[in-house]
Design goal:
Blueprint (H helix, E strand, L loop, with lengths): L16 H18 L4 H8 L3 H29 L1 H21 L3 H29 L2 H33 L1 H19 L29 H32 L3 H7 L1 H19 L5 H17 L14 H12 L4 H8 L6 H35 L2 H8 L6 H32 L27
Membrane topology: Multi-pass membrane protein
Organism: Streptomyces iconiensis
Pfam families: MFS_1
Length: about 450
Amino acid sequence: MSPTHAIPERPSPSPLLLPVVLLGIFVMPISITGAAIALPDISRDLGSDPTMLQGVVNGFNIALTISTLLWGQIGNRIGLRRTFVIGLATVLLGAVGSALAGNLILLDLARIITGVGAAAIATGGTSIISHAYDGKRRAHAFALLGTIVGIGLAAGPTLSGLLVTALGWRGVFGVVAGVAALVLAAAAFRVLPAPSAMSKGDAPRRGFLDLSPLRSPRFLAVALVPVAASFAYVSVLTYAPIALSAVHGQDSATAGLFMLPLTLPVLVGPLLAGALITRARVSPHTIINTAIVLLITGDVLFLLFDPSLSPVLLVVPMILLGFGWGLPLGLVDGEALASVPAHSSAAAAGVLNFLRLGSEALAVAVFGAALAAIIGAQLGNPTLGAEVAAGATGHAAVYATVFRTMMIACAVVTTVIGAAVILLRRAGGTPSPNSTEDELPTAAESPTASIPVL
């Protein structure tokens, strides 16, 4: 790993820096989870073509996933502050286009543009936080980052539902445009850090697709944590409401309320992790290991999912899964970016977010496909299997049996990835000077603090 340049003290960031960056990043999770709520209203206005309607959600998600990797490379060349600002402008353009779209083709195109911009915001924003803060302030900043992402993911559907009711489906995209415009205006008043004295040319020249962060065992160990969580948590978050409908006959509203034990811990987990690190001096990797154990245990306890048992018994595994996802939510970003040289931070952020988002999409797709295929095989009718997997009632026992099998499979996958995390971390040796692990002094106390490259 290349050594970082030493400076006696890093410049003190603006008090408004963290709120501005976090507000910008908030655009990403609400855009991921919120648009689906508006689909029925969009269908009534612009048509019901199923492929084009799914493009409203999938176009954004695919563009976001692919673009995070590309923006990681671009950010190393044009600077992190410029990446963040370009992302805001792109999201503003895409959100305005979404709100004004007169047909599904234009709406899908605008959503793709929004996804590209959201990726730049996430890449530039997390890297800016990584370089602007250190020690306790850095741990606290990434804890807040995790909380903001958790709030956006958990509250996105509710917030969007209220906006659709009050303003119509165009209001959902109008609010995103308003947030992007507000943050863009704030960025114009020197809230973001000035570019570093270190020129972009000091970074080693590589090909356009820079995957060098994956060569670091410490980075790869941390980057695999959200991959494990995708299989253990995101699959449950996606399919549990359908499962509750198919097995226990819950309607959408009841199933939504029943998901609160799964989502509420995500809001407090990152702040709890930050407090444990800064006040109790708990190692970040102790928190990561604990989170992985919680994820595995939560998946295994879904053996309680059975039509003959009360669904209330699922509250315990849901809480465990919620904290397993929430505890390392912001911590992972901080530890991953601290494990690579400063000039590779944008590439590292891009690779991390690509693995995170890509694994979420893969986990959900594999879980759904396997669930439908196994149910179809059990019933001897693939078409009926697909209907039951989508929530059709009448085959509760079969659905519950297959769902429990899938949860055990998720626990096994999470265990394997968790073991890889531990082995890679041991192979990585001692922590990076930028890591929050066992190193909580301020920049003035740390002669090895790296120069922020913005």
